[in-house]
Write a structure and sequence with these properties.
The complex is a heterodimer of chains A (444) and B (301). Chain A is mainly beta. Chain A contains four helices and 18 strands. Chain A is elongated, with a radius of gyration of 30 Å. Chain B has a four-stranded parallel sheet with strand order 2-1-3-4, with helices on one face. The N and C termini of chain B lie far apart (70 Å). Classes of the chains: A mainly beta (444), B alpha/beta (301). Chains A and B meet through helix 2, strand 7, strand 8, strand 9 and strand 10 of A and helix 1, helix 3 and helix 4 of B.
């Protein structure tokens, strides 16, 4: 059809030519020249359209999902051995909370596949390969496309909507590692197998409300992998408000409440004689998370300059029983346990010229109050629970990063980490993060 | 938990104003499509533009306020060709709105309906942030606006049959005025034919193609990569051997690079509205083209 059109245009152009000879005045000649020019242009356009039509992808490959691969690596220089990393004052999570290795190491390589399944669902799978060659399903979920009235349902494994940073993939974080609060309350980053229902209100001011229930396969639930029972092991309610101030500042505030009933959630410690022991907690764990984000850019155009302020506050209450030395038959003792602990961080990242950003983060945890029945009753001493001894960890972090394109970033980060009660860790990280393949879209 | 529910309910009530109760809520990614929807829809539509002419449409944050607006949209109009790939997919999946998903009548990708320029034959990120579907900045050729207007009118009528007659008559009137304007602009822009131009980004390729100007270089070393000192130095050399007559940058670009080259090469630099709202005169689609042509004629005189 396009070819026919081209021929027709060419023919009419040819017919127009003899007319030129008969043109009486200069004006008419000019008018005809213009017409020929126009026709020429139309022929070119038509040819282009035809070329484009033939360029359309064909075959089975054309429906492949969007694939992207994140690669990253670090050079770490740490004054303390990351293998001995601990955060004093808080129950160890069993999560991947230690800072990156000393020396050169490969970070997590992340492979992401995403596509619309059909007209009803979208599917996303994100798999990470650790530097020790183990593969982990980071996220694998389906999401509804066709529900109306602001409802979305998500099912599978996904990062829980608890707080703000927990929902963001590590490669999009503004610092190399997670805030201390995310490490102690969420085991670095909480993902669970579950279902999420979210509703977005029909208002100009952004408002959402959601609920998710999950298996409880990770800290703060327990045991690791989830309990062997029907129903669910973890629930989370969350709500978000957001909007714009003027023509350059966007804000978002979130509140969430995560509740779970861990059973035999174990952690390793040493007793007062220095002998390794395994202790376990059974009871309830409830976590409030409050988050606030402010992003500024002149006219909302972040190409030249931008600023991002991000902060979160967590508070956790745990109530139940703590069993001491569960690994040695006969030596196990059990008593009550209750704790109220909190933590927060605040960070600012400023892009002062295109490609370059600087950032500062302050972390603080409050060990709060912890009562251990076995210590209160005199059966054991506080020295038998050294990791739980009251201590308020802090950390200061600065970073500068350079992003030559949207797909690559090199970052230098310095931190003074007082997570351990007995030593300060001075850390230097040099890191690269690149993304190959499909252009990702990042959450606010 | 109860506290959250209560809080949610309270906030829900406090903020339960709805976007204007017009027949059709139109969410546009770029202001030109908003201006067009307004021309065709008049008071039958309520238009919300996600971006302004002062923003780089490639780099937009999926802000909460945008999700809130797309949630209630009946029709989505975007340039497409991956221009909005960094943010629109996120808005769509977060919206909980089935009316504007890909494959529904409420989803309109304008660039699908015009012949695209600069469709790359080789696609590789080493070439910069290129768009495999071709250059997405189709709004700078007025003939593309006519093509999109025809499709948009049909969609509006399909989604809001009660007002179909209004859309049809408004579209007819608009297209007639537009045809007249194109003829006038083509006459006015005649002196631009063959004029060599340096662009900041390939933002005006369609305009250049339409007016017959000739692009000799871009300030960006590669699409989407900000100008570098070394690239500007190369351009300065190039301007000595092959001088351009004008350097153009868009309303959202930083003027620094263009001014740097302009001062040293003595070639005038001119800011062009990238879309409706880019300059004071570019109040609507007519003003947009009037001002683009006016500014260029002023510079190349």
């Amino acid at each position: 059809m396009v070819k026919k059109k081209v021929l027709a245009l060419a023919a009419s152009a040819a017919l127009a030519l003899p007319l030129v000879a008969r043109a009486q005045s200069q004006d008419e000649v000019q008018a005809l020249r213009d017409r020929v020019d126009q026709l020429e242009k139309r022929v070119t356009d038509a040819e282009q359209a035809a070329a484009q039509a033939s360029n359309r992808p064909a075959g089975e490959n054309a429906l492949n999902p969007a694939v992207s691969l994140i690669l990253n690596g670090t050079y770490g220089n740490l004054s303390q051995d990351p293998a001995n990393f601990k955060i004093n004052g808080f129950v160890p999570t069993g999560g991947d909370v230690a800072p990156p290795n000393r020396g050169l190491s490969l970070g997590e390589s992340e492979l992401a596949l995403a596509a619309n399944v059909d007209h009803l669902f979208r599917g996303t799978g994100i798999f990470s390969v650790s530097s020790d060659n183990s593969i982990e399903v980071e996220e694998a979920y389906i999401q509804t496309l066709a529900l109306s009235y602001g409802f979305t349902v998500k099912a599978g494994r996904f990062f829980s909507s608890v707080g703000y940073q927990n929902q963001i993939h590590a490669h999009a974080w503004d610092f190399t590692d997670a805030p201390l609060a995310n490490k102690v309350f969420l085991g670095n980053q909480l993902s669970d197998d579950g279902i999420q229902l979210k509703w977005v209100a029909p208002t100009e001011l952004y408002f959402d409300f959601g609920v998710e229930v999950g298996r409880g396969r990770n800290f703060p639930a327990g045991p690791e992998g989830g309990r062997n029972k029907n129903g669910f092991g973890l629930s989370n309610f969350f709500t978000t408000l957001g909007g714009d101030f003027g023509t350059g500042t966007a804000w978002q505030a979130g509140l969430s409440y995560l509740s779970t009933s861990p059973q035999d959630r174990t952690y390793d410690d040493v007793d007062s004689t220095g002998t390794p022991v395994t202790n376990s907690f059974t009871g309830t764990s409830k976590l409030w998370a409050l988050s606030g984000i402010l992003k500024w850019a002149p006219n909302f155009n972040p190409t030249e300059r931008s600023f991002k302020l991000q902060g979160e506050y967590f508070q956790r209450r745990e109530n139940g029983d703590l069993a001491f030395n569960t690994a040695t038959p006969g030596a196990t003792q059990t008593g009550g346990y209750a704790s109220t602990q909190s933590g927060w961080y605040l960070q600012g990242v400023y892009q002062f010229i295109p490609m370059w950003r600087v950032g500062y983060r302050y972390d603080r945890l409050n060990a709060g109050s912890t009562s251990i029945g076995l210590v209160d009753s005199g059966a054991l001493t506080a020295a038998d629970f050294p990791i739980l001894a009251k201590y308020n960890p802090t950390r200061q972090t600065v970073m500068v990063d350079w992003s030559p394109s949207e797909f690559s970033r090199v970052r230098l980060q310095l931190a003074q980490d007082k997570s351990r009660s007995d030593a300060t860790d001075n850390e230097v990280f040099l890191e690269y993060i690149v993304s190959l393949g499909a252009h990702g879209a990042h959450k606010f | 938990m109860r506290t959250i529910l209560k809080l949610g309910a309270a906030l829900g009530l406090a903020t339960s104003w709805l976007p204007a109760a017009a027949a059709l809520n139109v969410f546009v990614c770029e202001p030109e499509w908003g201006a067009l929807a307004q021309e065709l829809g008049g008071d039958k539509v309520s238009v919300y533009a996600a971006t302004t002419a002062l923003q780089d449409p490639h780099r937009i944050e999926a802000r909460p306020s945008l999700i809130a607006r797309i949630r209630s949209a009946d029709l989505l109009v975007c340039s497409g060709s991956e221009l909005e790939i960094g943010w629109l997919p996120l808005l769509l999946t977060q919206s909980g709105n089935s009316r504007i998903q890909l494959g529904t009548p409420g989803y309109l990708e304008a660039s699908q309906y015009v012949a695209k320029l600069e469709v790359p034959t080789v696609v590789d990120r080493a070439l910069g942030d290129i768009h495999p579907g071709g250059n997405p900045h189709i709004q700078t050729d007025p003939r593309n606006i006519s093509k999109v207007a025809t499709v948009l009118e049909e969609r509006m009528a399909q989604l809001d049959p009660a007002d179909a007659a209004t859309y049809h008559s408004r579209a007819k009137a608009f297209l007639e005025r537009w045809r007249g304007a194109i003829a006038r602009w083509e006459k006015e822009a005649a002196p631009l034919r063959g004029v060599p131009v340096v662009e900041h980004h390939k933002a005006f390729s369609y305009f250049i193609n339409w007016t017959g100007m000739r692009e000799v270089a871009t300030l960006e070393p590669k699409p989407g990569i900000p100008p570098t000192p070394s690239h500007l130095a190369e351009l300065l050399d190039l301007m000595k051997s092959q001088p351009a007559k004008v350097i153009v940058y868009s309303s959202y670009d930083s003027p620094q690079a263009a001014q740097f080259l302009s001062e040293r090469s003595k070639i005038p630099a001119v800011m062009l509205p990238f879309t409706v709202g880019g300059t004071e005169k570019a109040k609507d689609l007519f003003g947009f083209f009037d001002d683009m042509i006016g500014r260029l004629l002023g510079a190349v005189k």
